[in-house]
Fold this protein.
Amino acid sequence: MMLAVSDVSMTYEPPRGLMRWLSRSASNKPVKALDQVSLGVERGEVVGLIGPNGAGKTTLIKAITTLLVPTAGTITLDGVALDADDPEMRRRFGLVLPEERSFYWRLTGRQNLRFFAALAGLEPSIADARIDQMMRERGLEHRDKAVFGYSSGMRAQLAIARATLHQPDLVVLDEPTRSLDPVAGAAVCDDLRRMAAEGRAILMASHRLDEVVSVCDRVLALAGGRIRWQGTAAEIAGDPIGLGATIRGLVDHDETDGNWRES
């Protein structure tokens, strides 16, 4: 298994002592965002992650990409445990988050990609060739201006370019098409299928069942911090309304419906 997540839990503890008065917290009780989540993604596979707001999708994605350290459980790439302090390990994945804010807004899109290519350790000649390719593929070739002048859709395309620039083994995306028009969104889905065909592992979180059905091989549904159902995209295509109602029922009643297969 290229990516293996085993019994991962994540609990956010409220601030204690003096920090309780110096920081802002939405709750004064521990919040369990993930509860013994297990999943796997193979090379050549696109796996979709769906679920309502607050289900734990973004927390799971940040744990997989070393932005958060889980409270319990293990995450491995090809059997090797994740290590946030190992730059070689972190180069093995690319990450796309919604509302990307880590670009340097007074640099152009191309200048941003050159900077992140250097951080990834790419040789300048190789980096320039890949940046040219990324700018063309993402529709940014003739829009090389300061990023603060980019539309939300252009920033989303730039984030995908940055995540895939160094040709990572694993690509993790959190709602990658949220700011894109339907044509650009469909093109991104085609690109994900192409990357999977090239041997990469793809994990994508999305709120759009139609998008998940069109691009994913398998789908996992997360609700209340737990994976409640998993199956193929064809199963969702057969009953998208029923699946959506079941997810909502899990959130409202915090119990597992009989139609769900526990993972």
